[in-house]
Design goal:
Number of helices: 12
Radius of gyration: 27 Å
Strand order of the largest sheet: 1-2
Order of helices and strands: HHHHEEHHHHEEHEEHHH
Structural class: alpha+beta
Distance between the termini: 84 Å
Helix content: 25-40%
Number of domains: 3
Strand content: 5-15%
């Protein structure tokens, strides 16, 4: 029997009304059945079964969580959890710098052109708490998440908090320029002479000699 529409639903469990109001439990169940979710047939066929197995959501801070993500939504593999609230990094709908870095890391991998083939370890992918435990808090707002070895993915032992200037020194796209017996990256020359790295690169591509490309803007003579 379907319990999706009509007075029969309101009469049995009281979680919907003809005025359009639905309880949080009913909304969650309805969302699970609408999406192409790996949902057990017991729950897919009946909200009453879902409610009987899961009970009332303890509070608005709780959300439905699968214990084992490899298994489908169903009795024994789901619980009402406040896991997103335990770490305090998503309070009030605002993400902390660490949570934002974790979320951005997962969004980048496999989606941006420069990140195809770069993966996130299972420990970090499934848990912000694990990521935070391994990485700790950002030393400052100038620090960003960096992979030490750009050929490897994100995970413990291959990541650190680094300032953007340090991060740019380590990127595989960096050019090394030798001048007066010193071989430095574009980022390092940029920091030393006070000229943007892109500006130095553009000068060289225009055919400027290195001696002229690596001088401050105010010292260039037309």
């Amino acid at each position: 029997m379907s319990f999706i529409n009509g007075d029969r639903v309101r009469e049995i469990h009281g979680h919907t009304s003809l005025r359009g109001g639905s309880s949080p439990e009913y909304v969650k169940w309805a969302n699970l059945t609408k999406k192409k979710t790996d949902l057990c047939s017991r729950w897919r066929d009946s909200f009453v079964n879902f409610l009987s197995d899961m009970g009332i959501r303890p509070s608005t801070a709780h959300s439905l969580e699968r214990i084992d993500r490899r298994r489908q939504y169903g009795p024994g593999n789901c619980r009402w959890s406040t896991r997103m609230k335990r770490h305090g990094h998503t309070t009030g709908g605002k993400f902390s710098p660490e949570y934002s870095s974790w979320h951005s890391m997962k969004m980048r991998c496999g989606r941006r052109r420069n990140y195809f083939g770069i993966t996130v370890c299972k420990r970090w992918k499934n848990s912000f708490t694990a990521f935070l435990s391994d990485m700790g808090q950002k030393p400052s707002m100038k620090h960003t998440l960096e992979r030490i070895d750009g050929r490897r993915g994100y995970g413990p032992g291959n990541c650190c908090w680094a300032t953007r200037i340090v991060q740019s020194r380590n990127t595989s796209r960096n050019h090394r320029i030798t001048h007066q017996g010193r071989s430095l990256t574009l980022a390092e020359w940029s920091e030393e002479i006070g000229v943007k790295a892109n500006t130095i690169l553009c000068r060289i591509r225009r055919g400027w000699p290195v001696t002229r490309a690596l001088i401050p803007n105010d010292a260039i003579q037309d």
